[in-house]
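Quick one: structure for this chain?
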Amino acid sequence: MSELKLSEEYLNRMRDLLGEEEFSAYLKSFDEERLYGLRVNAAKVTPEAFPELVSWDLKPVPWIPNGFYYEGTERPAKDPYYYAGLYYLQEPSAMTPAMLLPVEPGDRVLDLCAAPGGKSTELGVKLAGKGVLISNDISNSRAKALLKNLELWGISNICVTSETPDKLADVFGPWFDKILIDAPCSGEGMFRKDDDMVKSYEERGPEYYSEIQKEITDQAVRMLAPGGLLLYSTCTFSRCEDEEIICHILGNHQEMELIRLPLFEGASGGIGLDGCVRLFPHKIKGEGHFISLLRKNGGGAERTAAGSRERSRMEPQGKRASALPTELTDFLALMNREFDNSRIMIKNDSVYYLPENFVPAKELRYLRTGLLLGELKNKRFEPGQALAMTLHAEEFKQTISWKKEDDRVIRYLKGETISLTPEEGPVKGWCLVCVDGHPLGFAKGTGMALKNKYYPGWRWL
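Got it. Here's what it folds into:
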C-alpha cells in the first residue's frame, strides 16, 4: 500500500463493508496511479471527432460515451481548445451521475450542489438550449467557478444561484422535472486522488455528513414535480451516506420510489439495497462513487406554471424590454440567430436573455439569470463573453479563425491587440474570433488590427 495514512477506524469500516478478500483488492488499488479524465462538450464537437483534434494519447472511458482518459503528463488545461469550451477536466467516475440522469430538452432541471460544474455542464448539453437549468451552490465563491464553467461551455438557458436548499424549496415548490444532488460527503471515494480528503475525513466523518444529506434530500423532494426524477450521488462508500440516505427518503416520503439503475462492466450494486450503483477503484478505472435514482409518483401539490406557489413572488428583478435600444438591435442583427424579444431583460444596463417561460424570483441571490448578452454603455452595446461561447462560427456575420498553432491564438487569449495579414483584413466592427472554427470571444476590427475584447477574468496566464 502507498504512504497514504488511513485510520484504523476507516480501514475496519471498509473491511466490514467489502469482506476480507475484496478489502485486500481495495487496498492494492492505492498502489496504482490515479487516473485523469476529460469529458467532451458534445454541443461543440462530437466525441468521435475530438481525438483527431489533439495530439494526446486518449483512451475511451468505457461507460461514458463522451469521456476519455488522458496521461497525467499532459496539460489539457493549457490548450486553446480548453478555452473554446471543447472539454471539461473531470475524474472518470464523477462523470457518471449526469450520464445516468435522463434529462430531455425542455426539462426543468435543478443541480442542487453544483459547483464547480462538472455535472451541470453535461446536464446543460442534454437540454440543448430548451427548458431551464438552475445550478445552485450554497458557497458564493464556489458558485462563481460554477458560473464560469457553464458559460465557458456555452450553456445559455441557465440560472446560477447561491442559496440554501430550504430557501429554494420555499420559492419554487414542486416545479422541477429532474433534480441532481451530488451531495457534500466524507469523500472516502477520493482518498487516492486527493490526500487532503483524508485530513478532512478525520475532522468530519460520515455521521456528520449524513445529517446534512438528509436535510438536503428532504428539501429536494419538496421541489420535485409529480412524475419527476431525483438522482442522488456521493463520492463516498459509507452506507450511512449512501443506501441509508435512500432509505431515509423512501421512509419519509411515501410518494418516492426507487428506480433500478442498470449496471455496466465494473459497476457494483447497492449494499443492502438493490437498484443502486456503486463504483470502486479496484473494480473500475476510476475512483469511488455511489448513485441512486428515484421517482416521485403522482399526487401532492400541482406544479405551478411560474415555478412558485405564489405567482406574485416571481416578480422580475429587471424590466422586460418591449422596445429594445437601437444599439442592441443593431448588434443582434449581426447574428444569424432569432431572439424572442419577450425574453430579453435589462437590469442596471446589463442585458440578459432569459430561459423560456422563466421569470427570476426576487427573493433569490442570482449570480446569473439566463444568458448575459452584454452591457449597454453610453449609447453603445458591448457583447458579453458568455454570448460568444454560445455561438457557432456560422452564426456571426464577421469571423476570424486561426489555426491552433498560430501564435496569435495565445496572444488573443492573453488580451493583446492582434495585427491582421493582408489576406485577413481589413476588418471593421465586431468580429467573432475562433480557433479552428471554434469561437473564443469577440474583438473589434479597426482596419488591419483587432482590438481585443476577450474577458479579462478568463485570460491565459
